[in-house]
Design brief:
With about 425 residues, the protein is of the alpha/beta class. It has 15 helices and 17 strands. Helix 2 crosses helix 4, helix 2 packs parallel to helix 5 and helix 3 packs across helix 10.
Length: about 425
Amino acid sequence: MTFEDIVDEIIQTPRFRKQPGFVVIKTMIQKIGYRDNIPIVHVAGTNGKGSVVMMMASILRSAGYKVGTFTSPHLVDIRERIRINDEMITKDTFTRMYEILSIHLEEMAYEGYEKASFFEVIFAIALMYYDREEPDVLLLETGIGGRLDTTNVLENKILTIITNISLDHTQILGETLQAIAYEKSGIMRSHIPVVYYNRIKEVNDTITTEAKKKHVPCREVLPFDAKIKERNQESIDFSLRNKYYEYETIHMNTSGDYQIENAKIAITGMHMLFQHFDITKAHVIEGIRDFKWPGRMTYIIPGILLEGAHNKEGIEAFVEHINRHESHKSIELVFVCMDDKQDYEMIRELCKIKRLQSVNIPRNTYIKAQNEARLMHLFKQNGIEHVFFIEQLKDLIEKRRRDMKDDKLLCCVGSLYLVGDILKIIEEG
């Protein structure tokens, strides 16, 4: 099989298991012989997980360490999920490891095990790769959960991190913030420290209650200890002071204010790791400066902004950014909502954009036909009259690339899958 054939085969596999559990992945790990001897930083949460993982990886690389990362979803290439020192696993290696894994999966089918999910297959390939390459540390982002997440099968953790929690994947994780916080807290291990950030007391109370049960040292990241010193469309300079550390100037090559919160989480996590690794404040500054994470408040070309926010809290941060820093421009949206339960709240927030002129909703890949009328109604109900369904996303992007003016901004928001497709269009164009 070619790499492309393998990807097609994996993509056809159900994303997650309907009844979460570790029987299948534990059997896969046993068959591939993964030793679970690499130190792990495990990151759960609703928003910011990937950014925190990649910030911490950048800091560790700046200190000279070999760093493995496992993130999701991917934007353009499935191999983005599996990296060492920010280099994706090669196509040849991915192919060889899948071929080996397939033999084990056939054995498991014969032995009566359930079929492995998409996420379990990708994670098993990642573990085979890390086992061969032996990085100094692994930074793992959970899929959608915590307690029953596939990544939580591993035990060799030196730090756990819980980023901001909001209502997301409620059909799996629970209908309340407390229920979701409980699930995310499931990544914690006895006596292994946890770093957490949230502005909602009920969430923090749930995390600390679960931490006490496991005798887990806690460090809370506070919301008010950073100050922006300078910013432009491409970067932010900020200072950071609290009782644990002080940084006069940190430079970050992103324009999203919410990435400051993620940087605080990552930096707090790194300070908790000073006992495990030879890291200095200079490495922290260098790592944050070199951090890149496409599709998160990214101006890919003049006049087009990509933002992967896909829940109410993420959209709120996006709208705040637009109204604060782009209020002089006429705004046009490309919007996709993959979660029917959140479309009302997301659209209500988007309609708070001060100079929102029109909305484009791509058909086919993203939107079920029965939901089209509902989405149009929600935008019009919130005061946006110009709502269009588009058949070819590529045609719209190419047209805006040719016609965009300095006083206009096309914002593509609502799904990381949408962001990935637009990046692919730009690369191919």
